[in-house]
Fold:
Amino acid sequence: RRRGLGPGAATLRLPNPGAASLDRRGGLYVADADNNIRQFGPEGLPLNTYAPAQPGHVGQLEAFNLTNTLVFYDDRQQLVLLDRFLAPLSELRLADYLDGTVRVATLAPDNQIWLLDESTLTLREFDPGALRLVQNTPLDILIGRTRPDFRFIRQYQNNTYLVDKTTGVYVFDNLGNYKKKLPLPGLNTVGFRGDELYYLDGGQVRFFHLYNLTSRTVALPAAADAGALRQVLVGEQYAYLFTAQGVAVYRLP
Structure:
């Protein structure tokens, strides 16, 4: 079943947008070229901005948690939690709690933080309330002789999805136990909507059902240059297409 996106609703002038996320109410969060966090309403209306006290590169942004937004600065190995209005709540220096280098990090719905320690190839769960590591899953046996290129991590419906651009998407349960690998190489990020995982696939968005394993595609608008697209996010009412010039907002049919 192949359908297209609806008419364009807005274009956000946001040169070189970086990490991005949607919250449960459809709000859009984007790291701009200066690594400030910009918050928009579902239709693209600007709301709030978080400018960090010290500069850093936003490696990942996670806003799906009901109360907090997580910002992971990969260059300075720091986590910052923001409230729903992008006011800072707390920050953590990862070097205070582990020796390795973290490549990707995300905030789960239960407020636990999942991260990939690249130095030891270990998936770790960190409790920011107790300030300690609570789960550790070594990945070296799973990975074998391949050279992984971890790009993204997300917890959704009690599973943790770890994107390795080299080989595909590793899936773990909420205790960190390995379940399976989805053979989807070449991805930088994935999104989730309902019971589906989605990703950019050439000139279309491919949706993969998490439980019955069927797939469907949605065509990109004719005006969209598929080769220029960097990322797509799909909410309940709108889809967001990211290019070097900014973010195009489209209403879903």
Observations:
- The first strand starts at residue 2 and ends at 4.
- The two ends are 14 Å apart (CA to CA).
